[in-house]
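Hi C.,

You asked whether I'd gotten around to modeling the 87-residue construct. I have! Everything is below, sequence then structure, no commentary in between.
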Amino acid sequence: MKKRQVVIKQRKSFCTTTSSSNVRYVECQKNHAANIGGYAVDGCHEFMASGSEGTDDALTCAACGCHRNFHRREVETEVVCEYSPPS
């Protein structure tokens, strides 16, 4: 086997980046008919917390009663690059 050496050159960036992300939990994907060998979802389209943030009820959906992990997670990420010319 030949050994390879990889050299990565970094360019000096004149860009200041800022990123932010928002997490949403949308439709419920829990299979309510799994115990009988079928597939059926309840039709819940968005997670709504049953309680306030920091409590156990904050992880339970008020609409369908499922845990938040059964709801599909959507992450919206925004990256902003502000150019500043070299001085």
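If it helps when you're writing up: The mean pLDDT is 84.

Thanks,
B.
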